[in-house]
Amino acid sequence: MQTGLFVRYCVFCFIAFSIAACQSARTVSSGKNGWVSLFNGRDINDWIVKIHHHEVGENFGNTFRVEDSMIKVRYDQYGAYNDQFGHLYYKTPFSYYHLVVEYRFTGNWKEDAPSYTLLNSGIMFHSQDPRTMPKEQNWPISIEFQLLAGLGDGKPRTTGNMCSPGTHIVYNGQLDSRHCINSTSKTYDADQWVRAELIVLGDSSITHIINGDTVLRYSKPQIGGEVVNNFDPKIKQDGKILSSGFIALQSEGQPIDFRKVEIKDLTFELGKK
Asked: Which stretches make up the 3-keto-alpha-glucoside-1,2-lyase/3-keto-2-hydroxy-glucal hydratase domain (predicted)?
């Protein structure tokens, strides 16, 4: 083979190999149509535990565990509940994304937990890094996609609500300092799987979706307000807009299962990088 032809052949092979490698890397990192599972079905090694009264990383009572290819929240190794509110954080923060979580409430509520925690859990997002939380901080400074189930009393109880530990939002064009705002969802009973979706576009738009129905919209999440105690004052900068943060699954006295936690990063689609 002539030298010039051989060089061109080598360059062609290198380019072809590089393209194939990049396509393979995108497939591995992005998954089908850009969706990635944050939960691998085997363990929570990619997650960080923070439970009230405990140091970050201590999974007290094996609260968060993987069984039957699900993340399960359980309290069978607890004594008194003692307000040991917990959160399981994915290891990296996100800003522009579409999140899908499938959950079901199950089992017996921890009766010495606060009464409002009955059939109650949540998905925290735009959260502070759990490693910035002191041992005695009770809740992360974050926005909560609140998950509730019906109490069996025939009264409506919406899920996919918004709660705001240490934060405020803009709702219907105005700064809203209420701790929780109810969605327009239907009532879903315990022991049934519910699909919760969250579309977050930085600080500009947040949408809650339950079983395919859009149930709440708001914008401009920002630090402010009460509820969170024993925080590091350097972290709670009231008025600071939250355009990114960590995602966490909550434990607060009610057993719950999570069988799917998937995300699609919208950063590149929206031209933010």
From this structure: 34-264
